[in-house]
Amino acid sequence: MIDRDALACTFSAYNCAGNGLLGGDAIHRHEPPSSEPDPFGPKTEISTGLGFEGTDEMTFDLVVSNLPAKAGEPVLKAFFDESLRRLSPGGFAAVVIVEPLAAFARDYLGSIGAHVIDTEKTASHSVFVYEERAGEKPPYVRDLPVSLKPYIRNSASFELEGLRYSLDTVYNVPDFDTIGHETLLAAKLVAEYAATAGACLVWNPGQGHIPACLVQKSWCRILLASRDILQLKTTEHNLRGSAVHQESISAPAFEVVGERIPQGSLNLVVLFVDEIPDRDGTLAEREAIDGLLMPGGIAVAVGSATGIGRLEKHRTECTVIADKKKKTARGIVLRRK
Predict the structure, then answer these.
(1) CA–CA separation, 254 vs 201, rounded Å?
(2) Of 120, 189, 196, 333, which is most buried by a Cβ count within 10 Å?
(3) d(CA 137, CA 76)
(4) pLDDT at residue 120 above 80?
(5) Measured distance CA(126)–CA(94) in Å, rounded
């Protein structure tokens, strides 16, 4: 199993373990799947990634995917191409896609020589089951590298707090052509309150707007972390060539990152708050911030008024020193005692 969302992978790992499938802890190692047979029996392997990342030369009897509605047509085309190449003899693929994209999917599958052997349709979704046509197997590319190329939708120059920079931006991540209120507010708070250029962590870096500004401000170490592997790869791509030391951490939740970074090692944490229905993890997030920041360190947290309100209410080792709003976004600044 491969998914760009580390939280989805963690749920899958938990459910696999609960149903007696081996390898349910694979997500915690973030290892690519193995092509070697397991001597102890069937095994489920789970990792974060894009497309078929980490599977090298493996072919499959079955490929199944719930295709994201906002992935962008180039990304969907890349998936269809690769899924057909990765089928073993007699294998087939089954995908579900939103109804507005059904005609596109049907036409593109036909254009690449796929044989659609079954379809199902509801008012909102369509399912396609397809295989290679006899004698028309697409050429397989050995160890095909994972590329951001199909994801990139725009290349543009931006300005935040007087700093100019250029980014390649991708489908299905916010702030691809204009900068949203949360990012604008985060940049303003960082500029006003984070004077020390040392080590920082950005949770949910998006397209890379805030990290790009931190690079210009001569921060010596930037850690990137997110549930979303696409955000991490996009920001890494946009910081390529920078002299700033950078690392990326894929994690299902912010508090998990706190377990992977030395305590008291950061001058700055920038947190774009995840809001998960029916879960309030803000106390764990506040405690993680306490642990990561060195004395006097600053955390900037932005999100909706509801999400930030939940984060702000807890009394921990960090004190709220600023609380500001911009349209629908709210941001607070915390200082470690």
Answers:
(1) 11
(2) 189
(3) 19
(4) yes
(5) 11
Q: Which among 208, 247, 242 has a CA at the least distance from the CA of 225? A: 247
Q: Which two tokens stand for residue 113?
A: 């020589």
User: Residue 128's beta-bridge partner residues?
Assistant: 95, 119
- Ordered DSSP codes for 204-230: S-TTSHHHHHHHHTT-SEEEEEESBHH
DSSP state of 68: -
Sorted by sequence, the CB contacts under 8 Å of residue 241 that are 6+ apart come out as none
pLDDT at residue number 22 = 59
Q: Which residues of 258-294 are buried (b: 16+ CB within 10 A; e: fewer)?
A: beebeeebbbbbbbbbbeeeeeebbeebbbbbbbbbe
Contact criterion met (CB below 8 Å) for 271 and 301: yes
Helix residue spans in 171-299 (DSSP H):
181-193, 209-216, 229-238, 254-257, 282-292
Residue entry with tokens 């993680």: 288
Average pLDDT of span 99-126:
96
Query: Which domains does the chain carry?
Result: 2-132 (3.40.50.150), 152-336 (3.40.50.150)
Q: What is the mean pLDDT of the chain?
A: 89
pTM of the model: 0.89
User: Tokens for 256?
Assistant: 């998990």
Handedness of CA 95, 96, 98, 100 (dihedral sign): positive
Amino acid at 111: S
Name which of 324, 303, 267, 296 is nearest 285 in CA terms. Answer: 303
CA-based diameter of the chain, in Å? 69
Sequence letter at residue 249: I
Instruction: Look up residue 151 and give its DSSP letter.
Output: G
- Measured distance CA(270)–CA(95) in Å, rounded: 37
**Contact by Cβ (8 Å): 242, 218:** no
Collapsed DSSP state (helix, strand, coil) of residue 138: coil
In this structure, what is the dihedral angle of CA atoms 311, 314, 320, 322, given to the nearest 10 degrees?
40
Residue 204 Cα distances to 115, 153, 233, angstroms: 40, 19, 11
